Amino acid sequence: MRAEEAPVWVLADPRAGTAAQALGIAERLPVAHRVVPLEWGAWARLPLPLPTLAGLTPATRAAFQPPWPRLVISAGRRAGPVARWLGARGARTVNCMRAFGRFDLSIIGRHDRPRAAPDVLPILGAAHRVTAAKLAASRTEWATLAALPGPRVALLLGGPVRGEGLAPGLAAALGAQVAGFAGSVMASASRRTGAAATDALAQSLTAVPHHLHRWGGDGENPYLGFLAWADLVVVSGDSVSMLSEALMTAAPVFVASLGDEGPRHRALHESLYAAGQARPLAQAPAPFNRPALDEVGRVAAEILARGWL
What we know:
Elements: E1 8-12, H1 16-26, E2 33-37, H2 58-61, E3 71-75, H3 79-87, E4 92-96, E5 105-109, E6 120-123, H4 132-141, E7 152-157, H5 168-179, E8 184-189, H6 195-204, E9 210-213, H7 223-229, E10 232-236, H8 240-246, E11 253-256, H9 263-274, E12 279-280, H10 295-305
Parallel strand pairs: 1-2, 1-3, 3-4, 4-5, 5-6, 7-8, 7-10, 8-9, 10-11, 11-12
Helix pairs in contact: 4-7, 5-6
């Protein structure tokens, strides 16, 4: 797509979870958007308080040519100075997560305790790309999951950000706990879970009907199908993305703490509990009512209401 055809630019950080926040918002707007992949140079490691492209590689900087967008959507500290550089050229700026400087609108999780201001929109969790339409389509695509006995529990497992994966014993214990109250388990392991922990999880689920998707395994990832067909969702507490995506369903959501989450993750859990959107795994499988939460839709509606497009 040529730049002049796209009134919205999305600054896509190389980290998929970060890029998904900006992409998810752009995909909910009724106009075309251009995805600008970002590659970071050495300067990106430094705090860059001024609007600048200095953190980008020379090849990436070359992609920044007029005509400039009406709106730029970014996510994260590194992309913030780039967005503000475009802001100095007339674009409205929307940035997800905390970053240096001011934006026309900052989308910040309530767990980060954002200041109250007209240019700040607090949300529960983080922005993402899961939508009601995608879940409905996945329910049709993965209709074979309906044959699994209920209650069908989606178990979404992450792992430590650094290290060699989740401890196999912890994965096995979590799998056994979920299998103890599930009619069937739909489990998804992530890159951070690791092969050893995934093997341990598989062994712990042998007592119940289950469908386990291994990271990098054969076939299409049924992650959205698991969410679409789940009667309950259990998410490991390390993953802000998976917790936020699970809230798009109307199923009860339970948080499985891995024991080493930092203060920000614990604050996220507490914010979800306080809003009635999730409960600790210790309270499963007791059902509770919660509405599906579409925070990204609320962000898109706010952008449109401000007349920036």
